[in-house]
Automatic annotation (TrEMBL):
This is Membrane protein YfhO. The keyword Hydrolase does not apply. Keywords: Membrane, Transmembrane, Transmembrane helix. Coiled coil: none annotated. The chain crosses the membrane at residues 12-32, 98-119, 150-166, 173-189, 195-213, 220-242, 296-315, 327-349, 369-388, 397-417, 641-663. It comes from Paenibacillus tianmuensis.
Length: 672
């Protein structure tokens, strides 16, 4: 049987896994930090549990008074490995908090395998192949961006797309062409549109060359078929992401926001491409990354030296233009372009790009470092191979040095993680409410507790997206792309972290706030003064501990109410994208439901009649009902999201099947 893995790739994977587990030993659940922890992990848990119960998770009713989640592409719910990672963590490791780290491990291992294949395609020697692969996986950037799990699929898909395109340029083959289309579609459904656009930009010249070669070979039908299939498969996602993916952002960012985080000292950045972090004056907490400058620059000593030698090699060979020369030139040119983008407004090229629509809605130039690392490491290792391919002893020395430097560098990653950002106690949500659904809970800590660490400590009381872990109801959460109309009308006061200021109390009370949380340092009388209410008649204490006091609000707009905003004797249940309301035998012509209106809601009564849904002046749901209605079921159904979700599953499994068929075909050609 043809081997699907050779000795070089096996050693690569072994080293990657050993270093990864070494990192986990010194900092368990290393990647469950920052946004991964406060934003993505709770939504992944919520969505995965819905899927386990046979429901496509379309909306999170715990937060933002109804938050559509599939169409929020950056949650990755149209990318099956997200759910696979959760299921492996829950049922194999018996601890779902490993989800993010399992997701990262899967992608780093696959990326190492594909990158090693790519280097083998260029006949890079055994030792340099390992050096290149380990350097590509363990760049400083890959770990300083560890709080954004959606970066790691890009680390995998970049070498995969390049490998397939190069294979096709060498020899046109419809199977590989179809596989390339599936890979591009699968990468699109990872959900990070910004990184997908960047990837298409960098590989666009290769696509043009590939199309030109197919036209020369008169493969018109194959080309048209693959392009058509690709666009048809992208349409559901494009439509969905266009509607809500960038909705809350302006037509174009302010220039300073467009640049966002960048490396503002180009020469220092270039110098530190050669230097691991432990040789630098590293800061002691993760928040330094917002001015990270040089700490993400390290790509490995051997690839960095290879870039210099490769540049000299190209100059010396400039009169010998062949395929090898052109490929190296392409890698160097786009490596330099992407590196210039990392420098943001320190180079004129990224300023020019600001004039391009859509591009100017993509913030933070540092994200191009994923692409510059790929091109430059690839270029550097291939160049080193051309120069020292026969010097095996030197290659062994370089390999040992590389692994030692990277292992020490991994230790330095742990020293840069801030305690507050990586404190796993935050996701052990305190839930004094025991999942009650008769009102929402809000934490009023903003402006009272000034220390960032204290705010982080208080976050376990339903701030950020933690309400989704305990399935209680809260007003907001942490989501950076709220729909434009809701952002302006409801969430402009707070949309970022789920902490609120006391002077927001009256505004949000109409949205069903029944339970309020204040720091325990404030007695009830001071809380009442801040809220401008009567301590004796308007609130009562229901829970207290060493951090918080929780109060019940006596006068609030209930979850279900009549036309005069009086509470209706009813109960609600939330499950499977639905709000189920039991009214008993009471008769009303109109009821209000304290969730935000969305055009994708449909309502039916217990007799199967469709009910009309409107919205009131505060954007809340209003339902016209018929006499004798006992139960109302309000269901969220977004067909674009459903199609995109199902299509992503089909694409993912098709990708596996095509890879298997190609493997079987190779076996049959070899006579097995």
């Amino acid at each position: 049987m043809i081997k699907w893995i050779n000795k070089t790739q096996l050693l690569n994977l072994s080293i990657i896994i050993i270093i990864f587990f070494f990192l986990q030993l010194i900092s368990p659940k290393f990647f469950l930090m920052g946004d991964n922890k406060v934003q993505f992990y709770p939504i992944i848990v919520y969505a995965s549990e819905n899927l386990l119960h046979g429901t496509i998770p379309q909306i999170n009713l715990s937060q933002y008074m109804g938050l559509p989640i599939i169409e929020k592409s950056y949650y990755g719910l149209t990318y099956p490995p997200v759910f696979l990672s959760y299921f492996l963590s829950k049922y194999v490791l018996l601890d779902p908090t490993w989800t993010i780290d399992i997701f990262v491990l899967i992608h780093l291992v696959l990326a190492a395998y594909v990158f090693s294949l790519l280097l083998s395609k260029f006949k890079v020697s055994h030792y340099l192949n390992i050096i290149g692969t380990v350097s590509y996986i363990f760049t400083s950037a890959n770990f300083f961006m560890s709080e954004w799990y959606y970066v790691y699929p890009t680390i995998l898909f970049l070498p995969a797309i390049f490998l397939l395109v190069f294979q096709l340029i060498e020899k046109l083959n419809f199977q590989y062409l179809f596989l390339l289309a599936l890979v591009i579609i699968a990468y699109f459904y990872v959900g990070n549109i910004q990184l997908f656009i960047y990837c298409m930009f960098y590989f666009f010249p290769l696509y043009i060359i590939l199309a030109y070669l197919m036209i020369r070979k008169k493969m018109y039908f194959q080309l048209a078929f693959v392009v058509m299939i690709t666009f048809i498969c992208l349409i559901p996602g494009l439509s969905m992401f266009y509607e809500t993916g960038l909705a809350a952002r302006p037509e174009k960012f302010d220039f300073s926001e467009y640049i966002g985080v960048n490396s503002d000292r180009p020469w220092e950045h270039i110098k530190h491409m050669f230097l691991p972090n432990f040789l630098m004056d590293s800061p002691n907490n993760i928040f330094y990354r917002f001015a990270f400058r040089d700490t993400m620059a390290y790509i490995g000593l051997v690839p960095a030296i290879g870039i210099i030698l490769g540049f000299i090699y190209l100059i010396c060979k400039r009169y010998t233009v062949n395929k090898q020369f052109l490929i190296l030139t392409y890698l160097l040119v786009f490596g330099v372009i992407s590196l210039l983008f990392v420098f943001g407004d320190k180079t004129i090229i990224y300023t020019w790009m600001y004039k391009i629509p859509i591009w100017n809605q993509l913030r933070s130039s540092y994200k191009h470092i994923v692409f510059s690392n790929f091109f430059l490491i690839f270029f550097g290792i291939v160049s080193m191979h051309l120069i020292i391919s026969q010097r095996y002893f030197l290659q062994k020395i370089l390999l040992i040095s590389t692994i030692l430097l990277i292992a020490i560098n991994v230790i330095s990653f742990n020293n840069i993680i801030g305690k507050g950002t990586h404190d796993l106690n935050q996701i052990k949500v305190q839930n004094p409410l025991n999942g009650t659904l008769d009102g929402r809970v809000v934490c009023f800590c903003k402006g009272i507790i000034s220390s960032h660490d204290k705010n982080i400590e208080y976050s376990k009381y339903f701030a950020f997206n933690y309400a989704s872990l305990s399935k209680v109801l809260t007003v907001g959460g942490y989501d950076v792309l709220i729909e434009k109309n809701l952002f302006n009308d409801v969430f402009k006061k707070n949309w970022y972290d789920g902490f609120y200021e006391p002077n927001d109390f009256e505004f949000y009370k109409k949205y069903g706030i029944k339970y309020i949380i204040f720091p325990s340092i404030l007695p009830k009388s001071e809380v009442a003064t801040l809220l401008k209410i009567n301590a004796a008649t308007d609130i009562k204490t229901i829970y207290t501990d060493n951090l918080i006091n929780m109060f019940e609000v006596i006068n609030f707009t209930p979850m279900v109410y009549d036309k005069d905003f009086n509470q209706i004797n009813s109960s609600i249940q939330l499950e499977k994208n639905t709000i189920q309301i039991s009214l008993g035998n009471l008769n009303y012509s109109t009821i209000g439901v304290n969730f935000l209106y969305n055009k994708n809601y449909i309502a039916r009564d217990d007799r199967g009649n469709d009910l009309k849904i409107n919205k009131d002046d505060y954007n809340r749901i209003v339902i016209n009902i018929k006499d004798g209605t006992n139960t109302i079921t309000v269901t969220y159904r977004d067909y674009k999201a459903i199609i995109a979700f199902l299509l992503s599953l089909i694409i993912f499994f098709s990708l596996i099947i095509v890879l298997f068929l190609i493997y079987r075909r190779r076996c049959s050609y070899a006579g097995y």
